[in-house]
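Consider what follows.

. . .
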Amino acid sequence: MDFLEILPKSIETKKGWPWDEETDPAIYTVYKNFPKISIITPSYNQGAYIEETIRSILLQNYPNLEYVIIDGGSTDNTIEIIKKYEPWITYWVSEKDKGQSDAINKGFEKCSGEIFNWLNSDDYYTAGSLFKVAEFFMENENTDVLAGRSTIFGINNRISEATPVFKNLSATISASRINQPATFFRLNIFKSLAPLDISMHYVMDLHVWLKYLVRNGIDRVHRIDNILVNFREHELSKTIASEMEFYKEKYFLLNNLQRKIEDNLHQEKDFFDGIIIPGHRTEDILTGINDCFLFWLRHFCKDKKNEIANILIEFINPKKLNLKSKIEYFYIKSIYKVNKLT
């Protein structure tokens, strides 16, 4: 279907993708059947951006699309825009929720596809991205997760590499990063990791990624060089407006996993309760977590971000560091104590 001919015109007269350009429907004739792709857009008061998000999904012209929008009760023009595209949206609702994780969980209940991801209402896909994702999954049945690249724009324009996957699990855990908008899961795999924890507001995507890694390792994760998403940075973005809260949630999440492995302690909030971690992976996971902590400890000490640095000092288990890193850790710790930077 040629959506450009039937979709309503944008509120503003804009040029280029996805305003007056579309993915050529002819590219889909190369295969007979395409897997259903389920996309969720969680939204709240993003009327300035959501139309671009919606059009970038519909103008993929993907032949087997399931598109769900869960809005948290927006009070701006978001609902007006959603209603404009309602005939081409599989399901949408606008009602008060408990945050982004809750919205995604609600949307996930409506999904029935084979491939899954969510796309926030201030980001948008690149032309042909869903074709590239589907093609890879179709041609590589041993793939659980496919990670592409992103263009980050708005404040500091740059290319974000695909979700880091290195030669071993330890190094991958050490990176502890997921380029979520450009990382697609088989829906049945994501279902085994769901639901998202609604108490998490910043790194719910990392939580899912860590659960996948500790259960399954890295063998069925693949990366492609294609840029699949345009990721928008703006002053109200959570990663910009709440940077320190983002880091805190990330490090408490990693330490929670570490404590579960080391002590099997049931803390007040155990983000990994019930997860079964294969014994042969535990040392790699612990090494990766502590390498991650030390890397960021260096960074925050240099920038004199004392609150975060002191959290990391307490979280690091030096027994899981190599000799060189262990010496560095104790040196940093002694400097903090001597200079009373807290």
